[in-house]
Amino acid sequence: MTIKIRYFASLRERLGRSEDTVAFEEALTVSDVWYRANPDQALPVNILAAVNMDYVALDSIVEDNDEVAFFPPVTGG
């Protein structure tokens, strides 16, 4: 099974890439997906996550062919 991962804004700049693909066999949460794709990077504080364009909690389970997006909190002014 595979999951597409997308990074936005400062996360994309910090990681030096805009997307990844992760293969897995067991159930993964959104935070598990982060650590699979970024084993040497701590999960940023206050990070937002979406699965298939819907906001989700970091303990949400992902499924085959899901798209997981990570982005920093958005502020406006």
Automatic annotation (TrEMBL):
One of its GO terms (molecular function) is nucleotide binding. SUPFAM superfamilies: MoaD/ThiS. Keywords: Nucleotide-binding. GO terms for cellular component: molybdopterin adenylyltransferase complex. It comes from the Bacteria. GO terms for biological process: Mo-molybdopterin cofactor biosynthetic process. Belongs to the MoaD family. This is Molybdopterin synthase sulfur carrier subunit. It comes from Crenothrix polyspora. The lineage of its organism: Bacteria, Pseudomonadati, Pseudomonadota, Gammaproteobacteria, Methylococcales. The gene is moaD.
